[in-house]
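User: quick one, fold this
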Amino acid sequence: MKPKFSKSLSRAIASCGIASFALALLALGGAAQAGDDPDLIFRKSTTFKLLTPNDKLATYAIDDPVVTGVACYYTVPERGGVAGMFGVAEQTSDVSLACRQVGAIQFKQKFAQGDVVFRESRSLLFKHMQIVRGCDVKRNVLVYMVYTDKLVEGSPKSSTSSVALQPWGATEPPKCSDFVSG
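Assistant:
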């Protein structure tokens, strides 16, 4: 004997599916970021998959939105396969980071220690990668850290890079301590 579902129960199940689909689209389209979109430098395949996209390592560059003259490069794994093809694969927390002075340093505004420079979604809903900035006041060095977090629990995997503020041409570097708020 087949169980009978009422029309209202069928509609409720269908509307839950639609709501879940809408929520997933919102999560995919709304990757919160502090700065501009990253520039893809290159990708390198790490595993071969016959009918679906390969797993890859991708290297990106971002400019610090508050500190002119600093660029950060980070490499992240990008999962392929069926889940990767549809953008629903949860990415791993492995990220490397290198930040460099690429021009004369200028601060656009004051910032707090640990301010977010860049943020990107690493899963369909709850996992994010963040690059944050601080200032080593004693040494006049900008310190950048990348890590991932989840709604429930984050990852202890992180990477740190530093940029010693140096003269660029005839321009003397400012003191980062003059721009730290709080």
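User: anything notable?
Assistant: The radius of gyration is 21 Å.
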